[in-house]
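Input chain follows. Return structure tokens only.
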Amino acid sequence: MRTRTAAAASASAALLLALSSHPAHADGTPVITKVVVNKGKNIVVGPTTVTKFTAQITASHYSGISTASVQLWHGASSANSDGAISYDAPQCTTTSSTTSSTTSTCTMNFQVKADTRDMTNVVSNADAGTWHVAAFAYGKDRSGTADDDYATTKVQRASKLTVNASPEPVKKGKTLTITGSLTRANWNTRTWAGYSGQNVKLQYRPKSSDTYTTLKTLTTSSTGKLSTSVTATADGYYRYIFAGTPTTPAATAAGDYVDVT
């Protein structure tokens, strides 16, 4: 794993927090009023593609804001972080100004990819899950506000879920076999791999309905496979749905239509 200080750890997270509207803390330092990372969503990283996202931080101070930024770090503490995602230079825009304070919003661009090398902007499987968000703001009078553990968010291994119902068509009252597979990004090998031991729901909706009903819950095999049997009753769609875990986002297979004759 990588070892970096919080100052080197760089940024982003699925987060939207509003804290205060006051122009400065009691000690005269800038006030961070809002942080938005990845549009408030978790950061999902696939096995090979580069994931890009933005973050915005809004801060106020009576002298004006010279710059502000957010950082994303992973590990037991900010002083001994073992993962980081870097960002480009913040671009700051003044959004409002009064006689008592000036408010600015600064935007940063980020990117991260799966890899096993000791480099910035890469993640390995052990990095999936909770990351910490740090927030910083600096006034034009050189005063600063720093919070190394402002909040937490998730960086997750991308997931996929498939379904197939057979035979098609099928006679009413006969047995349908519903198979599928739950896979997720393996950041160490940069491939898709089966996600074992996970609860997945089998759902069905009639052709004339927009509502799915859960028929049963299955557990994925050691290779992420799913297989079960149901009795064919009427034309309709079958799908699998996975609720997700802290390290892996939810996934829903597109419904497979079955013609019942």
